[in-house]
Amino acid sequence: MTAVVRVLSRAGVLVFLLLGLAVGTAAPASAHPTLLFTDPATDTAVPESPPVITLVFNEAVTIGPRTVTVLDSGGRPVPVGDATSARGGHVVSARPAGVLPAGTYVVRWQVTGADGDQVEEEFRFAVGTAISGAGTTGGQSIAWADAVLRWLLFAGVAVALGGVVGERFTASARAENPRLRPLRSWVAPATVVGLAGVTGLAAVLVADIGAVSNLWQGRVGQLLLAEAVGLVAALALSAVRGGRWCGWSVLPLGLVVVAEGLRSHANVAAPGWGALLTGVHLAAVAVWVGALVQVARAALAWRRERAAVRWVLAGYVRLALWVFVVVVATGTVTALLLVPLPTVLTTSYGQVLLIKLALVAVAAGLALSARLTLRLTLRRRERLVRVGTLARVESMVLVGVLAVSAVLVSTPPAGSQQPGPPPPHGPVVALGTLAGQVGVSAQASDGQLVVRLTTPRRGDYYAPKPTQDYTLSGQLTAQRESRAVEFRGCGEGCFMSTVDWRDGDNVLTLQAEASSWRGGTVSLLVPWSPQPGAEDLARAAAALRAVDRVTVYEAVTSDTGTGLPEPQRLDLTGEFFVSQEPYAAGTAPIAVRISRPGQPIRLALGYPAVFTNVQLTLDARGRISEETLTDDSHLVHRRFVYPDHG
After folding, report:
1. pTM (global) more than 0.85
2. I need a surface site. Which of 20, 312, 330, 461 has the fewest CB within 10 A?
3. Is the peptide bond before 529 cis (omega within 30 degrees of 0)?
Protein backbone atom coordinates (compact mmCIF):
# COMPACT_ATOMS: atom_id res chain seq x y z
CA MET A 1 0.00 0.00 0.00
CA THR A 2 2.81 2.36 0.90
CA ALA A 3 4.53 1.62 -2.41
CA VAL A 4 1.32 2.35 -4.28
CA VAL A 5 0.99 5.68 -2.50
CA ARG A 6 4.61 6.52 -3.31
CA VAL A 7 4.04 5.69 -6.99
CA LEU A 8 0.87 7.76 -7.13
CA SER A 9 2.60 10.65 -5.38
CA ARG A 10 5.49 10.58 -7.85
CA ALA A 11 3.03 10.38 -10.73
CA GLY A 12 1.15 13.37 -9.36
CA VAL A 13 4.37 15.35 -9.04
CA LEU A 14 5.34 14.39 -12.58
CA VAL A 15 1.94 15.43 -13.96
CA PHE A 16 2.19 18.71 -12.07
CA LEU A 17 5.67 19.36 -13.48
CA LEU A 18 4.55 18.51 -17.01
CA LEU A 19 1.57 20.81 -16.70
CA GLY A 20 3.81 23.56 -15.39
CA LEU A 21 6.25 23.02 -18.22
CA ALA A 22 3.44 23.10 -20.77
CA VAL A 23 2.08 26.35 -19.40
CA GLY A 24 5.53 27.88 -19.14
CA THR A 25 6.52 27.05 -22.70
CA ALA A 26 3.23 27.88 -24.39
CA ALA A 27 3.43 30.37 -27.26
CA PRO A 28 3.26 33.83 -25.75
CA ALA A 29 0.70 34.98 -28.32
CA SER A 30 -1.74 32.32 -27.02
CA ALA A 31 -1.89 33.68 -23.48
CA HIS A 32 -4.70 36.09 -24.36
CA PRO A 33 -6.17 37.20 -27.67
CA THR A 34 -4.37 40.25 -29.09
CA LEU A 35 -6.09 42.86 -31.19
CA LEU A 36 -3.89 43.16 -34.27
CA PHE A 37 -5.62 45.68 -36.52
CA THR A 38 -8.82 47.66 -36.74
CA ASP A 39 -10.75 49.35 -39.50
CA PRO A 40 -10.99 52.30 -38.98
CA ALA A 41 -7.43 52.15 -37.68
CA THR A 42 -6.63 53.15 -34.11
CA ASP A 43 -6.14 56.88 -33.54
CA THR A 44 -6.76 57.74 -37.17
CA ALA A 45 -9.54 59.40 -39.13
CA VAL A 46 -11.77 58.35 -42.02
CA PRO A 47 -13.31 60.75 -44.56
CA GLU A 48 -16.86 59.48 -44.06
CA SER A 49 -18.92 57.34 -41.71
CA PRO A 50 -17.60 53.75 -41.82
CA PRO A 51 -20.22 51.22 -42.92
CA VAL A 52 -18.71 48.59 -40.63
CA ILE A 53 -16.23 48.49 -37.74
CA THR A 54 -13.79 45.58 -38.04
CA LEU A 55 -11.41 44.08 -35.47
CA VAL A 56 -8.76 41.49 -36.40
CA PHE A 57 -7.32 39.22 -33.66
CA ASN A 58 -4.35 36.91 -33.63
CA GLU A 59 -6.49 33.95 -32.55
CA ALA A 60 -10.08 32.81 -32.67
CA VAL A 61 -12.32 34.63 -30.18
CA THR A 62 -15.84 34.17 -28.90
CA ILE A 63 -18.22 37.10 -29.12
CA GLY A 64 -21.11 38.07 -26.87
CA PRO A 65 -23.95 40.61 -26.67
CA ARG A 66 -21.60 43.47 -25.68
CA THR A 67 -18.69 42.68 -27.96
CA VAL A 68 -18.61 46.11 -29.66
CA THR A 69 -19.79 49.37 -28.07
CA VAL A 70 -19.35 52.77 -29.71
CA LEU A 71 -19.36 56.04 -27.76
CA ASP A 72 -19.39 59.57 -29.19
CA SER A 73 -17.16 62.42 -28.00
CA GLY A 74 -19.58 63.11 -25.13
CA GLY A 75 -19.47 59.51 -23.89
CA ARG A 76 -22.97 58.73 -25.16
CA PRO A 77 -23.61 55.27 -26.68
CA VAL A 78 -24.08 55.13 -30.44
CA PRO A 79 -26.44 52.42 -31.74
CA VAL A 80 -24.65 49.53 -33.46
CA GLY A 81 -25.84 46.20 -34.75
CA ASP A 82 -24.98 42.81 -33.29
CA ALA A 83 -21.37 41.75 -33.72
CA THR A 84 -20.53 38.95 -36.15
CA SER A 85 -17.39 36.87 -36.60
CA ALA A 86 -15.54 35.60 -39.69
CA ARG A 87 -12.30 33.84 -40.69
CA GLY A 88 -12.74 31.20 -38.07
CA GLY A 89 -13.34 33.71 -35.29
CA HIS A 90 -10.27 35.85 -36.03
CA VAL A 91 -12.32 38.78 -37.41
CA VAL A 92 -15.14 40.54 -35.54
CA SER A 93 -17.41 43.12 -37.20
CA ALA A 94 -20.26 45.38 -36.16
CA ARG A 95 -22.28 47.82 -38.25
CA PRO A 96 -23.32 51.24 -36.95
CA ALA A 97 -27.09 51.59 -37.04
CA GLY A 98 -26.85 54.91 -38.84
CA VAL A 99 -24.45 57.42 -40.34
CA LEU A 100 -21.88 58.67 -37.83
CA PRO A 101 -21.63 62.49 -37.89
CA ALA A 102 -18.22 64.16 -38.01
CA GLY A 103 -16.42 63.83 -34.70
CA THR A 104 -14.30 61.54 -32.53
CA TYR A 105 -15.54 58.10 -31.39
CA VAL A 106 -14.37 55.48 -28.89
CA VAL A 107 -14.86 51.76 -29.62
CA ARG A 108 -14.94 49.48 -26.58
CA TRP A 109 -14.62 45.79 -27.34
CA GLN A 110 -14.98 42.67 -25.23
CA VAL A 111 -14.19 39.12 -26.39
CA THR A 112 -13.39 35.75 -24.86
CA GLY A 113 -10.17 33.99 -25.79
CA ALA A 114 -9.49 30.29 -26.34
CA ASP A 115 -8.36 30.00 -22.70
CA GLY A 116 -11.76 31.18 -21.49
CA ASP A 117 -10.51 34.54 -20.22
CA GLN A 118 -12.37 37.67 -21.12
CA VAL A 119 -10.37 40.55 -22.64
CA GLU A 120 -11.61 44.09 -23.11
CA GLU A 121 -9.96 47.27 -24.34
CA GLU A 122 -10.84 50.35 -26.37
CA PHE A 123 -9.56 52.41 -29.27
CA ARG A 124 -10.66 55.62 -30.92
CA PHE A 125 -11.08 57.01 -34.42
CA ALA A 126 -12.51 60.16 -36.00
CA VAL A 127 -14.88 60.87 -38.86
CA GLY A 128 -14.19 63.83 -41.14
CA THR A 129 -16.50 65.93 -43.28
CA ALA A 130 -17.21 65.87 -46.99
CA ILE A 131 -14.92 67.98 -49.16
CA SER A 132 -16.46 71.06 -50.75
CA GLY A 133 -14.94 73.18 -53.49
CA ALA A 134 -12.62 72.45 -56.37
CA GLY A 135 -9.18 70.99 -55.94
CA THR A 136 -5.86 72.67 -56.53
CA THR A 137 -3.79 71.29 -59.38
CA GLY A 138 -0.04 70.82 -59.13
CA GLY A 139 2.59 69.66 -61.58
CA GLN A 140 2.39 70.95 -65.17
CA SER A 141 -1.28 71.93 -65.30
CA ILE A 142 -2.46 75.39 -66.29
CA ALA A 143 -3.67 77.87 -63.67
CA TRP A 144 -6.58 79.24 -65.72
CA ALA A 145 -7.66 81.96 -63.28
CA ASP A 146 -4.13 83.38 -63.27
CA ALA A 147 -4.00 83.07 -67.07
CA VAL A 148 -7.16 85.17 -67.56
CA LEU A 149 -5.98 87.86 -65.16
CA ARG A 150 -2.50 87.85 -66.68
CA TRP A 151 -4.05 88.27 -70.14
CA LEU A 152 -5.87 91.39 -68.93
CA LEU A 153 -2.56 92.74 -67.65
CA PHE A 154 -0.69 91.93 -70.86
CA ALA A 155 -3.44 93.31 -73.10
CA GLY A 156 -3.63 96.53 -71.11
CA VAL A 157 0.13 97.03 -71.11
CA ALA A 158 0.40 96.18 -74.84
CA VAL A 159 -2.33 98.59 -75.95
CA ALA A 160 -0.93 101.30 -73.66
CA LEU A 161 2.79 100.86 -74.40
CA GLY A 162 2.38 100.07 -78.09
CA GLY A 163 -0.24 102.79 -78.32
CA VAL A 164 2.31 105.36 -77.16
CA VAL A 165 4.56 104.26 -80.05
CA GLY A 166 1.70 104.06 -82.57
CA GLU A 167 0.45 107.50 -81.62
CA ARG A 168 3.72 108.93 -82.92
CA PHE A 169 2.79 107.72 -86.43
CA THR A 170 -0.68 109.22 -86.26
CA ALA A 171 0.66 112.44 -84.73
CA SER A 172 3.17 112.86 -87.57
CA ALA A 173 0.40 112.21 -90.13
CA ARG A 174 -1.77 114.93 -88.57
CA ALA A 175 1.21 117.27 -88.58
CA GLU A 176 1.34 116.87 -92.37
CA ASN A 177 -2.44 117.15 -92.69
CA PRO A 178 -4.09 119.07 -89.81
CA ARG A 179 -7.53 118.38 -91.32
CA LEU A 180 -7.32 114.72 -90.20
CA ARG A 181 -9.73 113.83 -87.40
CA PRO A 182 -7.80 113.34 -84.12
CA LEU A 183 -7.94 109.87 -82.60
CA ARG A 184 -8.83 109.50 -78.96
CA SER A 185 -5.96 107.96 -77.00
CA TRP A 186 -6.54 104.46 -75.63
CA VAL A 187 -3.60 104.65 -73.23
CA ALA A 188 -5.71 105.53 -70.18
CA PRO A 189 -8.45 102.87 -70.72
CA ALA A 190 -5.82 100.24 -71.50
CA THR A 191 -3.94 101.15 -68.33
CA VAL A 192 -7.15 100.68 -66.33
CA VAL A 193 -7.57 97.20 -67.87
CA GLY A 194 -4.01 96.33 -66.90
CA LEU A 195 -4.58 97.63 -63.38
CA ALA A 196 -7.68 95.43 -63.11
CA GLY A 197 -5.54 92.43 -64.02
CA VAL A 198 -2.96 93.28 -61.34
CA THR A 199 -5.70 93.79 -58.75
CA GLY A 200 -7.19 90.40 -59.58
CA LEU A 201 -3.80 88.69 -59.31
CA ALA A 202 -3.25 90.36 -55.92
CA ALA A 203 -6.68 89.15 -54.76
CA VAL A 204 -5.84 85.58 -55.77
CA LEU A 205 -2.55 85.81 -53.90
CA VAL A 206 -4.29 87.16 -50.77
CA ALA A 207 -6.75 84.26 -50.92
CA ASP A 208 -3.81 81.85 -51.05
CA ILE A 209 -1.79 83.33 -48.19
CA GLY A 210 -4.80 84.15 -46.04
CA ALA A 211 -4.01 87.75 -45.02
CA VAL A 212 -3.58 91.10 -46.78
CA SER A 213 -0.82 91.99 -44.31
CA ASN A 214 1.32 89.17 -45.74
CA LEU A 215 0.86 90.28 -49.36
CA TRP A 216 3.95 92.48 -49.59
CA GLN A 217 6.23 90.18 -47.62
CA GLY A 218 6.84 87.78 -50.50
CA ARG A 219 8.61 88.45 -53.78
CA VAL A 220 5.50 87.86 -55.90
CA GLY A 221 3.51 90.39 -53.89
CA GLN A 222 6.30 92.96 -54.14
CA LEU A 223 6.44 92.58 -57.94
CA LEU A 224 2.67 93.01 -58.16
CA LEU A 225 3.00 96.18 -56.10
CA ALA A 226 5.66 97.50 -58.52
CA GLU A 227 3.37 96.76 -61.48
CA ALA A 228 0.47 98.54 -59.79
CA VAL A 229 2.67 101.58 -59.11
CA GLY A 230 3.79 101.67 -62.75
CA LEU A 231 0.25 101.48 -64.10
CA VAL A 232 -1.05 104.12 -61.70
CA ALA A 233 1.82 106.44 -62.69
CA ALA A 234 1.07 105.92 -66.40
CA LEU A 235 -2.59 106.65 -65.74
CA ALA A 236 -1.68 109.82 -63.84
CA LEU A 237 0.55 111.06 -66.69
CA SER A 238 -2.24 110.43 -69.17
CA ALA A 239 -4.67 112.37 -66.98
CA VAL A 240 -2.25 115.30 -66.67
CA ARG A 241 -1.90 115.44 -70.46
CA GLY A 242 -5.67 115.35 -70.88
CA GLY A 243 -5.55 112.04 -72.74
CA ARG A 244 -3.07 113.37 -75.33
CA TRP A 245 0.13 111.61 -76.36
CA CYS A 246 2.82 111.55 -73.68
CA GLY A 247 6.15 109.85 -74.33
CA TRP A 248 6.97 109.83 -70.63
CA SER A 249 4.30 107.14 -70.16
CA VAL A 250 6.84 104.67 -71.52
CA LEU A 251 8.84 104.81 -68.29
CA PRO A 252 6.19 103.65 -65.79
CA LEU A 253 4.89 101.09 -68.29
CA GLY A 254 8.46 99.86 -68.64
CA LEU A 255 8.45 99.22 -64.88
CA VAL A 256 5.63 96.73 -65.45
CA VAL A 257 7.67 94.99 -68.16
CA VAL A 258 10.70 94.78 -65.85
CA ALA A 259 8.60 93.32 -63.03
CA GLU A 260 7.19 90.66 -65.36
CA GLY A 261 10.71 89.79 -66.45
CA LEU A 262 11.82 89.31 -62.84
CA ARG A 263 8.77 87.13 -62.14
CA SER A 264 9.19 84.97 -65.24
CA HIS A 265 10.02 81.26 -65.55
CA ALA A 266 13.12 82.22 -67.54
CA ASN A 267 14.49 84.27 -64.65
CA VAL A 268 14.12 81.23 -62.38
CA ALA A 269 16.02 79.08 -64.88
CA ALA A 270 18.69 81.72 -65.60
CA PRO A 271 18.62 84.57 -63.07
CA GLY A 272 19.33 87.94 -64.63
CA TRP A 273 19.60 86.85 -68.25
CA GLY A 274 16.20 85.19 -68.09
CA ALA A 275 14.59 88.38 -66.80
CA LEU A 276 16.26 90.40 -69.57
CA LEU A 277 15.10 87.98 -72.27
CA THR A 278 11.53 87.98 -71.02
CA GLY A 279 11.42 91.73 -70.56
CA VAL A 280 12.69 92.44 -74.08
CA HIS A 281 10.35 89.81 -75.53
CA LEU A 282 7.31 91.19 -73.73
CA ALA A 283 8.18 94.79 -74.67
CA ALA A 284 8.59 93.84 -78.33
CA VAL A 285 5.26 91.98 -78.40
CA ALA A 286 3.57 94.92 -76.65
CA VAL A 287 4.91 97.41 -79.19
CA TRP A 288 3.91 95.11 -82.07
CA VAL A 289 0.35 94.67 -80.76
CA GLY A 290 -0.29 98.17 -79.46
CA ALA A 291 1.17 99.99 -82.45
CA LEU A 292 -0.80 97.78 -84.83
CA VAL A 293 -4.05 98.47 -82.96
CA GLN A 294 -3.39 102.22 -83.21
CA VAL A 295 -2.54 101.97 -86.92
CA ALA A 296 -5.66 99.87 -87.62
CA ARG A 297 -7.78 102.52 -85.89
CA ALA A 298 -6.17 105.25 -87.98
CA ALA A 299 -6.67 103.32 -91.23
CA LEU A 300 -10.35 102.89 -90.41
CA ALA A 301 -10.89 106.50 -89.34
CA TRP A 302 -8.93 108.02 -92.25
CA ARG A 303 -9.94 105.55 -94.94
CA ARG A 304 -10.88 108.40 -97.31
CA GLU A 305 -7.44 110.00 -96.91
CA ARG A 306 -5.20 107.61 -98.85
CA ALA A 307 -2.03 109.62 -98.36
CA ALA A 308 -2.46 109.66 -94.59
CA VAL A 309 -3.23 105.94 -94.46
CA ARG A 310 -0.20 105.25 -96.65
CA TRP A 311 2.00 107.33 -94.35
CA VAL A 312 0.86 105.54 -91.17
CA LEU A 313 1.03 102.05 -92.70
CA ALA A 314 4.50 102.63 -94.13
CA GLY A 315 5.83 103.75 -90.74
CA TYR A 316 4.31 100.76 -89.02
CA VAL A 317 5.58 98.25 -91.58
CA ARG A 318 9.16 99.46 -91.09
CA LEU A 319 8.79 99.15 -87.31
CA ALA A 320 7.06 95.76 -87.46
CA LEU A 321 9.98 94.18 -89.32
CA TRP A 322 12.46 94.91 -86.54
CA VAL A 323 9.99 94.13 -83.78
CA PHE A 324 9.27 90.76 -85.39
CA VAL A 325 12.97 89.93 -85.46
CA VAL A 326 13.32 90.76 -81.75
CA VAL A 327 10.20 88.74 -80.83
CA VAL A 328 11.40 85.65 -82.71
CA ALA A 329 14.98 85.87 -81.43
CA THR A 330 14.11 86.33 -77.74
CA GLY A 331 11.26 83.84 -77.92
CA THR A 332 13.49 81.16 -79.46
CA VAL A 333 16.23 81.58 -76.86
CA THR A 334 13.69 81.53 -74.02
CA ALA A 335 12.03 78.41 -75.40
CA LEU A 336 15.34 76.57 -75.65
CA LEU A 337 16.09 77.64 -72.08
CA LEU A 338 12.81 76.38 -70.64
CA VAL A 339 11.64 73.45 -72.76
CA PRO A 340 13.80 70.42 -73.54
CA LEU A 341 13.04 69.36 -77.10
CA PRO A 342 11.81 65.85 -76.13
CA THR A 343 9.12 67.40 -73.90
CA VAL A 344 7.66 69.85 -76.43
CA LEU A 345 4.85 67.50 -77.44
CA THR A 346 4.34 65.76 -74.09
CA THR A 347 3.95 68.69 -71.65
CA SER A 348 1.29 71.36 -71.30
CA TYR A 349 3.92 74.10 -71.55
CA GLY A 350 5.38 72.70 -74.75
CA GLN A 351 1.96 72.30 -76.36
CA VAL A 352 0.91 75.86 -75.52
CA LEU A 353 4.26 77.10 -76.82
CA LEU A 354 3.59 75.41 -80.16
CA ILE A 355 0.23 77.20 -80.36
CA LYS A 356 1.95 80.53 -79.72
CA LEU A 357 4.53 79.83 -82.42
CA ALA A 358 1.75 79.03 -84.88
CA LEU A 359 -0.07 82.30 -84.09
CA VAL A 360 3.16 84.30 -84.41
CA ALA A 361 3.77 82.67 -87.78
CA VAL A 362 0.24 83.61 -88.92
CA ALA A 363 0.75 87.20 -87.73
CA ALA A 364 4.09 87.35 -89.51
CA GLY A 365 2.49 86.08 -92.70
CA LEU A 366 -0.22 88.73 -92.50
CA ALA A 367 2.38 91.44 -91.88
CA LEU A 368 4.45 90.26 -94.86
CA SER A 369 1.36 90.17 -97.08
CA ALA A 370 0.47 93.71 -96.05
CA ARG A 371 4.02 94.90 -96.76
CA LEU A 372 4.06 93.34 -100.23
CA THR A 373 0.63 94.71 -101.02
CA LEU A 374 1.69 98.17 -99.92
CA ARG A 375 4.78 98.03 -102.16
CA LEU A 376 3.02 96.71 -105.26
CA THR A 377 0.78 99.64 -105.66
CA LEU A 378 -0.68 102.42 -103.60
CA ARG A 379 -2.64 103.98 -106.45
CA ARG A 380 -5.80 101.96 -106.24
CA ARG A 381 -8.12 102.52 -103.31
CA GLU A 382 -9.01 98.85 -102.96
CA ARG A 383 -5.39 98.00 -102.34
CA LEU A 384 -5.33 100.30 -99.34
CA VAL A 385 -8.56 98.77 -98.12
CA ARG A 386 -6.96 95.36 -98.37
CA VAL A 387 -3.92 96.53 -96.40
CA GLY A 388 -6.19 97.92 -93.71
CA THR A 389 -8.10 94.65 -93.54
CA LEU A 390 -4.87 92.69 -93.22
CA ALA A 391 -3.75 95.01 -90.41
CA ARG A 392 -6.99 94.50 -88.49
CA VAL A 393 -6.81 90.70 -88.84
CA GLU A 394 -3.15 90.80 -87.80
CA SER A 395 -4.08 92.79 -84.68
CA MET A 396 -6.70 90.18 -83.71
CA VAL A 397 -4.17 87.38 -84.17
CA LEU A 398 -1.69 89.26 -81.98
CA VAL A 399 -4.33 89.64 -79.28
CA GLY A 400 -4.51 85.85 -79.40
CA VAL A 401 -0.71 85.75 -79.06
CA LEU A 402 -1.05 87.79 -75.85
CA ALA A 403 -3.69 85.38 -74.53
CA VAL A 404 -1.45 82.38 -75.22
CA SER A 405 1.48 84.20 -73.62
CA ALA A 406 -0.62 84.69 -70.50
CA VAL A 407 -1.35 80.96 -70.47
CA LEU A 408 2.36 80.20 -70.84
CA VAL A 409 3.41 82.27 -67.85
CA SER A 410 0.66 80.55 -65.82
CA THR A 411 1.95 77.08 -66.73
CA PRO A 412 5.02 75.57 -65.05
CA PRO A 413 7.48 74.55 -67.78
CA ALA A 414 8.78 70.99 -67.89
CA GLY A 415 11.42 70.49 -65.24
CA SER A 416 10.79 73.87 -63.63
CA GLN A 417 11.13 74.30 -59.91
CA GLN A 418 8.33 76.26 -58.27
CA PRO A 419 9.19 78.12 -55.10
CA GLY A 420 8.95 75.67 -52.23
CA PRO A 421 6.97 76.24 -49.06
CA PRO A 422 8.42 78.49 -46.35
CA PRO A 423 10.21 76.69 -43.52
CA PRO A 424 7.94 75.49 -40.71
CA HIS A 425 7.65 77.39 -37.47
CA GLY A 426 7.46 75.64 -34.12
CA PRO A 427 6.77 71.92 -33.71
CA VAL A 428 5.95 69.78 -36.75
CA VAL A 429 3.56 66.84 -36.89
CA ALA A 430 4.45 64.52 -39.78
CA LEU A 431 1.72 62.11 -40.89
CA GLY A 432 1.30 59.84 -43.87
CA THR A 433 -1.17 57.55 -45.58
CA LEU A 434 -2.21 56.21 -48.99
CA ALA A 435 -5.14 57.57 -50.99
CA GLY A 436 -5.77 54.66 -53.32
CA GLN A 437 -2.35 54.32 -54.96
CA VAL A 438 -1.23 57.89 -54.25
CA GLY A 439 1.16 58.47 -51.35
CA VAL A 440 0.17 61.32 -49.03
CA SER A 441 2.75 62.94 -46.74
CA ALA A 442 1.54 65.84 -44.58
CA GLN A 443 3.48 68.18 -42.32
CA ALA A 444 1.50 70.35 -39.91
CA SER A 445 3.28 73.26 -38.23
CA ASP A 446 2.26 76.54 -36.64
CA GLY A 447 -0.16 78.17 -39.07
CA GLN A 448 0.85 76.01 -42.01
CA LEU A 449 0.10 72.72 -43.74
CA VAL A 450 2.30 71.20 -46.45
CA VAL A 451 1.12 68.09 -48.31
CA ARG A 452 3.26 66.17 -50.78
CA LEU A 453 1.76 63.59 -53.13
CA THR A 454 3.78 60.80 -54.72
CA THR A 455 3.13 57.82 -56.97
CA PRO A 456 4.94 54.50 -57.42
CA ARG A 457 7.58 53.99 -60.07
CA ARG A 458 7.01 51.85 -63.15
CA GLY A 459 9.77 50.06 -65.02
CA ASP A 460 13.41 51.04 -64.57
CA TYR A 461 13.90 52.40 -61.05
CA TYR A 462 16.89 54.47 -62.14
CA ALA A 463 15.14 56.07 -65.12
CA PRO A 464 13.77 59.62 -64.68
CA LYS A 465 10.37 59.56 -63.05
CA PRO A 466 7.60 60.65 -65.45
CA THR A 467 5.91 63.99 -64.78
CA GLN A 468 2.59 63.70 -62.94
CA ASP A 469 -0.35 66.07 -62.74
CA TYR A 470 -1.71 66.05 -59.17
CA THR A 471 -4.93 67.49 -57.80
CA LEU A 472 -5.64 68.03 -54.10
CA SER A 473 -8.59 69.40 -52.17
CA GLY A 474 -9.18 69.39 -48.44
CA GLN A 475 -11.55 69.98 -45.56
CA LEU A 476 -10.62 70.60 -41.92
CA THR A 477 -12.90 69.81 -38.98
CA ALA A 478 -12.06 70.89 -35.43
CA GLN A 479 -14.20 71.72 -32.41
CA ARG A 480 -17.38 71.03 -34.42
CA GLU A 481 -16.42 73.57 -37.08
CA SER A 482 -15.57 72.65 -40.65
CA ARG A 483 -14.01 74.69 -43.43
CA ALA A 484 -12.42 74.10 -46.80
CA VAL A 485 -8.63 74.07 -47.01
CA GLU A 486 -7.42 76.27 -49.88
CA PHE A 487 -4.18 74.87 -51.30
CA ARG A 488 -1.65 76.48 -53.62
CA GLY A 489 1.13 74.72 -55.48
CA CYS A 490 4.73 74.66 -54.24
CA GLY A 491 6.23 72.29 -56.83
CA GLU A 492 5.30 69.04 -58.53
CA GLY A 493 3.06 67.14 -56.11
CA CYS A 494 3.58 69.82 -53.42
CA PHE A 495 0.70 71.79 -51.93
CA MET A 496 0.58 74.22 -49.05
CA SER A 497 -2.03 76.17 -47.12
CA THR A 498 -2.34 78.43 -44.12
CA VAL A 499 -4.19 76.59 -41.34
CA ASP A 500 -5.29 77.65 -37.87
CA TRP A 501 -4.84 74.45 -35.87
CA ARG A 502 -7.14 74.10 -32.86
CA ASP A 503 -6.09 72.53 -29.57
CA GLY A 504 -7.14 68.88 -29.50
CA ASP A 505 -8.06 66.76 -32.48
CA ASN A 506 -8.12 68.26 -35.99
CA VAL A 507 -9.61 65.98 -38.65
CA LEU A 508 -8.02 66.71 -42.04
CA THR A 509 -9.85 65.17 -45.00
CA LEU A 510 -7.98 65.11 -48.33
CA GLN A 511 -9.00 64.10 -51.83
CA ALA A 512 -5.85 63.30 -53.80
CA GLU A 513 -5.71 62.44 -57.49
CA ALA A 514 -2.86 61.69 -59.93
CA SER A 515 -3.02 61.66 -63.71
CA SER A 516 -2.16 57.97 -64.22
CA TRP A 517 -2.84 56.37 -60.82
CA ARG A 518 -5.93 55.67 -58.77
CA GLY A 519 -6.44 58.28 -56.06
CA GLY A 520 -8.99 58.55 -53.31
CA THR A 521 -10.26 60.38 -50.24
CA VAL A 522 -8.54 59.91 -46.88
CA SER A 523 -8.54 61.56 -43.48
CA LEU A 524 -5.75 62.25 -41.02
CA LEU A 525 -6.13 62.92 -37.31
CA VAL A 526 -3.85 65.86 -36.45
CA PRO A 527 -3.52 66.27 -32.65
CA TRP A 528 -2.45 69.73 -31.55
CA SER A 529 -0.27 70.84 -29.98
CA PRO A 530 2.50 68.21 -30.03
CA GLN A 531 5.29 67.74 -27.51
CA PRO A 532 8.95 66.76 -28.09
CA GLY A 533 9.35 63.04 -28.66
CA ALA A 534 13.05 62.49 -29.41
CA GLU A 535 13.83 60.97 -25.99
CA ASP A 536 10.78 58.68 -26.17
CA LEU A 537 11.92 57.43 -29.58
CA ALA A 538 15.48 56.74 -28.40
CA ARG A 539 14.23 54.73 -25.40
CA ALA A 540 11.68 52.80 -27.48
CA ALA A 541 14.23 51.80 -30.12
CA ALA A 542 16.69 50.68 -27.43
CA ALA A 543 13.99 48.69 -25.61
CA LEU A 544 12.95 46.85 -28.78
CA ARG A 545 16.57 46.17 -29.74
CA ALA A 546 17.13 44.50 -26.37
CA VAL A 547 14.29 41.99 -26.88
CA ASP A 548 15.42 38.47 -27.79
CA ARG A 549 12.21 37.43 -29.51
CA VAL A 550 9.18 39.39 -30.71
CA THR A 551 6.20 38.38 -32.79
CA VAL A 552 5.24 40.94 -35.40
CA TYR A 553 1.91 40.82 -37.23
CA GLU A 554 2.26 42.80 -40.44
CA ALA A 555 -0.29 43.96 -43.04
CA VAL A 556 1.02 45.68 -46.19
CA THR A 557 -0.91 47.30 -49.02
CA SER A 558 -0.04 49.44 -52.03
CA ASP A 559 -3.67 50.30 -52.80
CA THR A 560 -6.13 51.20 -50.06
CA GLY A 561 -8.99 50.61 -52.48
CA THR A 562 -8.48 46.84 -52.24
CA GLY A 563 -9.60 46.51 -48.61
CA LEU A 564 -7.93 45.33 -45.40
CA PRO A 565 -5.00 43.00 -46.23
CA GLU A 566 -4.44 39.64 -44.52
CA PRO A 567 -1.91 40.02 -41.68
CA GLN A 568 1.29 37.95 -41.78
CA ARG A 569 3.06 36.66 -38.67
CA LEU A 570 6.82 37.18 -38.32
CA ASP A 571 8.94 35.85 -35.43
CA LEU A 572 12.08 37.96 -35.18
CA THR A 573 14.72 39.24 -32.84
CA GLY A 574 14.32 42.82 -31.70
CA GLU A 575 17.83 43.61 -32.92
CA PHE A 576 17.07 42.41 -36.44
CA PHE A 577 13.73 44.22 -36.69
CA VAL A 578 15.05 47.57 -35.48
CA SER A 579 18.02 47.39 -37.86
CA GLN A 580 15.59 47.37 -40.81
CA GLU A 581 13.62 50.43 -39.68
CA PRO A 582 14.23 54.12 -40.51
CA TYR A 583 14.53 54.80 -36.75
CA ALA A 584 17.30 52.20 -36.31
CA ALA A 585 19.61 54.82 -34.79
CA GLY A 586 16.90 55.92 -32.38
CA THR A 587 16.52 59.29 -34.09
CA ALA A 588 14.32 60.99 -36.68
CA PRO A 589 14.42 64.43 -38.38
CA ILE A 590 10.91 65.00 -37.01
CA ALA A 591 9.88 63.30 -33.76
CA VAL A 592 6.98 64.53 -31.62
CA ARG A 593 4.62 63.05 -29.05
CA ILE A 594 0.99 63.36 -30.19
CA SER A 595 -0.85 61.42 -27.47
CA ARG A 596 -3.12 62.96 -24.86
CA PRO A 597 -2.18 62.90 -21.17
CA GLY A 598 -3.09 59.64 -19.50
CA GLN A 599 -3.12 57.73 -22.80
CA PRO A 600 -0.45 55.38 -24.20
CA ILE A 601 2.41 57.36 -25.70
CA ARG A 602 2.09 57.89 -29.46
CA LEU A 603 4.92 59.28 -31.57
CA ALA A 604 4.81 60.83 -35.04
CA LEU A 605 8.09 60.53 -36.95
CA GLY A 606 8.93 62.19 -40.25
CA TYR A 607 11.70 61.44 -42.75
CA PRO A 608 10.95 64.09 -45.43
CA ALA A 609 13.95 63.29 -47.63
CA VAL A 610 12.58 59.82 -48.40
CA PHE A 611 8.83 60.62 -48.14
CA THR A 612 8.48 58.28 -45.17
CA ASN A 613 6.33 58.79 -42.07
CA VAL A 614 6.02 56.52 -39.04
CA GLN A 615 3.55 56.51 -36.17
CA LEU A 616 4.45 54.48 -33.08
CA THR A 617 2.39 53.49 -30.05
CA LEU A 618 4.33 52.51 -26.93
CA ASP A 619 3.21 50.13 -24.19
CA ALA A 620 3.50 50.69 -20.45
CA ARG A 621 7.16 49.59 -20.51
CA GLY A 622 8.08 52.04 -23.29
CA ARG A 623 8.29 49.37 -25.98
CA ILE A 624 6.74 49.69 -29.43
CA SER A 625 3.34 47.98 -29.49
CA GLU A 626 1.98 49.33 -32.79
CA GLU A 627 3.52 50.88 -35.89
CA THR A 628 2.10 52.49 -39.02
CA LEU A 629 4.63 53.25 -41.75
CA THR A 630 3.97 54.97 -45.08
CA ASP A 631 6.26 55.73 -47.99
CA ASP A 632 5.57 56.78 -51.57
CA SER A 633 3.86 53.50 -52.48
CA HIS A 634 3.12 51.42 -49.35
CA LEU A 635 1.04 51.53 -46.21
CA VAL A 636 2.27 49.14 -43.50
CA HIS A 637 0.50 48.30 -40.23
CA ARG A 638 2.38 46.29 -37.58
CA ARG A 639 1.39 44.91 -34.19
CA PHE A 640 4.07 43.69 -31.73
CA VAL A 641 3.53 40.85 -29.24
CA TYR A 642 6.30 40.26 -26.68
CA PRO A 643 7.02 37.01 -24.77
CA ASP A 644 5.60 38.47 -21.54
CA HIS A 645 2.41 39.66 -23.23
CA GLY A 646 -0.86 38.89 -21.51
Report:
1. no
2. 461
3. yes
